[in-house]
Design brief:
It comes from Ensifer adhaerens. By secondary structure, the protein is α/β, with parallel strands linked by helices. Helix content is 36%, strand content 24%. The protein folds into two domains: 164 residues, Rossmann fold; 74 residues, no CATH class. It contains nine helices and ten strands. The strands form two sheets. It has a six-stranded mixed β-sheet, sandwiched between helices. It starts with 5 loop residues before the first strand and ends in a 6-residue tail after the last helix. The model has no long low-confidence stretch (mean pLDDT 89). Bound molecules: adenosine-5'-triphosphate (ATP) and magnesium ion (MG). Adenosine-5'-triphosphate binds next to strand 2 and helix 1.
Length: 249
């Protein structure tokens, strides 16, 4: 099999006595959408935050493209190509949609842009940022402040920001949340297309989307992966049906 793009080994994170991540190992391979499912409070977002670098693991390793990234902060991980969209929005609310994406383009280029430079008319930033908004169907709303976008539009904007990082991996935490059936369908086919761009670790409660998209599914319960396999394997796993899919044994 190909080398994993992302390789997590025995990751652990406690909040006081609570083991939110309890020895998680997981691999993401090129071309794959790997879905991470599990009940509320299982530790899915906590895991995403540790991979993105917004939360430090207590122990264990995270290797990205062969490099141990455990010691890098979130900005450094983003520059390496780890793009994330969190369950809790991290948009700059007062900035326009375009400006939010421009900040991501700028972050991607790191120090090649000066912090104090007037960026609003800078074509090197506006053009790629506008192209990302077009891809997610948000170009018409480019100049609207993030705070005034609808919930669905904000999710689209977060994906545009992830795209602007020219990612080598996508980390998505519940991109479908609050989308409604039509929006979810559109987003599902959009995410399907992204698999050719970079592999994806996808946390999602929408099981229609998960079953449609995932090459592999891991099931997290109380901070532990209780099963990992193909869609068919996970659907027919009695432990998973009991623990997560809500069926009587
Ligand atoms: N900063 C924190 N401090 C203390 N406890 C936390 C913190 N963040 C998360 N937790 C706890 O860790 C556990 C895992 O939370 P997490 O948000 O990762 O779950 P989740 O699987 O993403 O749930 P959901 O599906 O509801 O989003 C929960 O019990 C949560 O209350
Ligand atoms: Mg969560």
């Amino acid at each position: 099999m190909s080398e994993p793009v992302l390789e997590i080994r025995d990751l652990r994170k406690s909040f006081g006595a609570l083991k939110a991540t309890d020895g998680v190992s997981l691999e993401l391979h090129p071309g794959q959408i790997h879905a991470l499912i599990g009940p509320n409070g299982a530790g899915k977002s906590t895991l995403i935050h540790q991979i993105a670098g917004s939360l430090r693991a207590d122990s264990g390793t995270i290797r990205f493209l062969g490099q141990d990234i455990g010691g890098l902060d979130m900005a450094a991980r983003a520059r390496l190509g780890l793009a994330r969209s969190f369950q809790i929005s991290s948009l700059a609310q007062e900035f326009s949609a375009l400006r939010n994406v421009m900040l991501a383009v700028q972050a991607r280029h790191g120090s090649s842009f000066h912090f104090f430079r007037q960026v609003s008319n800078d074509k090197e930033l506006t053009e790629p940022a506008m192209a990302m908004l077009e891809r997610v169907d948000l170009a018409a709303r480019a100049h609207v402040p993030a705070a005034e976008l609808s919930h669905g539009e904000r999710r689209q904007l977060e994906i545009a920001i992830a795209l602007a990082l020219s990612p080598k991996v996508f980390l998505f935490d519940e991109p479908m949340a609050g989308m409604g059936p039509e929006g979810s369908k559109r987003l599902t086919s959009f995410l399907d297309g992204l698999r050719h761009e970079a592999p994806m670790l996808l946390v999602e409660h929408d099981m229609d989307a998960v079953f449609a998209l995932a090459d592999r599914i891991s099931v997290l319960v109380y901070g532990r992966i209780i099963a990992s396999g193909t869609v068919d394997e996970i659907r027919s796993d009695p432990d998973v049906r009991r623990a997560y899919l809500g069926e009587a044994a």
